[in-house]
Amino acid sequence: MKQIEKRELELLAKICNQNNIPLKLAKELLKTSKKLSYENVTAGARIKEYEELINIYSKND
């Protein structure tokens, strides 16, 4: 299982580098999306939360 997680991280890092996206931002977005996908949240609220996360992490770079 550790190899799968390691490979996922390597692929995520590669994609982030290609698209000039901070790895920390991508990890946080994936973590949040997994959490929110199981909650009863409307699509509009979920999009707003993603936009807020993007703004927060974009300002930190």
Structural features, described:
With 61 residues, the chain is mostly helical. It has one domain. 84% of the residues lie in helices and 0% in strands. It contains three helices and no strands. It is flat and about 35 Å long. The mean pLDDT is 84. It holds the Pfam family Sp-DndD. InterPro entries: Sp-DndD.
Q: What's the total helix number?
A: 3
Domain unit count: 1
Point out poorly predicted stretches: none
Radius of gyration: 13 Å
**Share of residues in helices:** over 70%
Q: Sketch the topology as an H/E string, one letter per element.
A: HHH
Instruction: Give the overall shape, derived from the CA principal axes.
Output: flat
- Broad structural category: mainly alpha
Strand content: under 5%
* Main sheet makeup: none
Summed over residues and divided by their number, the pLDDT gives a mean of 84
Question: What's the β-strand tally?
Answer: 0
Distance between the termini: 32 Å
Q: What's the structural blueprint in terms of helices and strands?
A:
Layout: H1 2-19, H2 23-37, H3 43-60
Helix pairs in contact: 2-3
Structure keywords:
61 residues, mainly alpha, 3 helices, flat, Sp-DndD
